[in-house]
Amino acid sequence: MFSSPTSPSRPATNKRFVRLPAPLTRHARRLLAAGWWPRTLLWQTFMLIALLLSLTLAAWSQIFRYFEEPARARDLAQMVASVVNLTRTALLNAEPGLRTGLLIDLAALEGIRIYPSEPSDELAPLPQTRPMRLLTAEIRKQLGDHTRFATRWKTVDGFWVSFRLEADDKDEYWVMLPGERLQKHNALDWLAWGSAALVAALVGAFLLVSRISAPLRSLAKAARIVGSGQYPPLQAESGPVELAVVTRAFNQMTGDLARADADRALILAGVSHDLRTPLARLRLGVEMSGAPDDEVAAMVADIEEMDRIIGQFLDFGRGDPQEPMQPVELVELVSGLSEPYRLRGLPLELRLPGELTVSGRALPLRRAVANLIDNAIRYAGSELPITLTVGQDDDGSAYVEVADRGPGIPEDEVERMRRPFTRLENARSNTKGAGLGLAIVERVMRAHGGALLLLPRDGGGLRAVLRMPPGRAG
């Protein structure tokens, strides 16, 4: 029969349409929180455009139906009135003896059934939809207000219309029209064409959004390269004006960073030469001064401490290492690094496996382990043993642990101690240093994709653990 109606209140529909974006935004936030809404700009924009196009198509289809239904109702009412009038005329003009054959021909050839109305007829009313109301109103205009309708007469389904042979005749007849005559034969065509238009619009929307998101993805990739301490190639300053401006600013920023990095390397080279050379001459002069041995040893220790602090400043100023990853034998690295300390009589206990190879940078890793050993000696003393452990966890991650019996680090101070120029004053009142040791180790591990863990040790002390992520150990 007719398709379901739309509400005749168009202003309410327009009001809901204007206020639609706010509920959509809230709904999108809920979907995002639940993990159902995409997180990339490309798919978020595409989904919003697709939703907007779908709602627009649905709104236009409802508007079309709203204005198309009255015209269709008039056409169908004209057809029904014509069938009823022709049937009535045929019955009036046919001889009484031929009426039965005429009714049989109408039923067989046209699908039109005619039955006399009786008070005991069992009728099922038509659905109260807007198309049906429009249709019945139009039919009554042409056949009279006495016209009745039904969707079932006794046990026969169809579109039933009552009529009288004469206007003042009290006897009524029921004429049934097949339901397919009232159906929309082009509904599937409209659906197919509407779906094709929607798909074409979505493809166009995807191409437009991808044209915007592609430069953004390229910028994000370049930004990650900058974040890793490298410098990407110049980005193409093309596309929309806004994106071109952003790309131009990004290229300028990377150029400024590259120049600043070159200046920093030049300054560090000058500092290394201009400061360490006088320190070496000063140490030689102190050792040849003829002063008492204890005074010479104290001055030499101060000079060595100054040289070590300068070295830390230089290490921190160099930034992240630039050399590529290579296989590093971790056991051999730790064993060779600990040997000079053991020759100086420092109590180092080594717990090493047979061999353990990781992907990394040998020099920064040596610097990180040496900083942890120096920290342990500085704050735990040279009398208590320091334990160096190399191992591999069940998930494949390799680790180097330096454990001491010093004062340790309170749990609430661990994160602060990772920052440069930071010291625990209570624990370090009698110690020297610039507060860069752990900051350098943190930077080295971040460049390796690993982590520095500062954990309390059972029985007192600190466990400083260098952990390499899974997949880098072998």
UniProtKB/TrEMBL annotation:
Lineage of origin: Bacteria, Pseudomonadati, Pseudomonadota, Betaproteobacteria, Rhodocyclales
Major location (coarse): membrane
Residue span, HAMP domain: 210-262
Organism: Pseudothauera nasutitermitis
Record localization: Cell inner membrane
Keywords: ATP-binding, Cell inner membrane, Cell membrane, Kinase, Membrane, Nucleotide-binding, Phosphoprotein, Transferase, Transmembrane, Transmembrane helix, Two-component regulatory system
Broad EC category: transferase
SMART domains given in the database record: HAMP, HATPase_c, HisKA
InterPro entries on file: 2C_sensor_his_kinase (IPR050980), HAMP_dom (IPR003660), HATPase_C_sf (IPR036890), HATPase_dom (IPR003594), His_kinase_dom (IPR005467), HisK_dim/P_dom (IPR003661), HisK_dim/P_sf (IPR036097), RisS_PPD (IPR032408)
GO cellular component, one term: plasma membrane
Reaction(s) catalysed by this chain's protein: ATP + protein L-histidine = ADP + protein N-phospho-L-histidine
GO molecular function, one term: ATP binding
Membrane topology: Multi-pass membrane protein
TM regions (residue ranges): 41-64, 190-209
The protein, known as: histidine kinase
EC number: 2.7.13.3
Residue ranges of every copy of the Histidine kinase domain listed in the record: 270-472
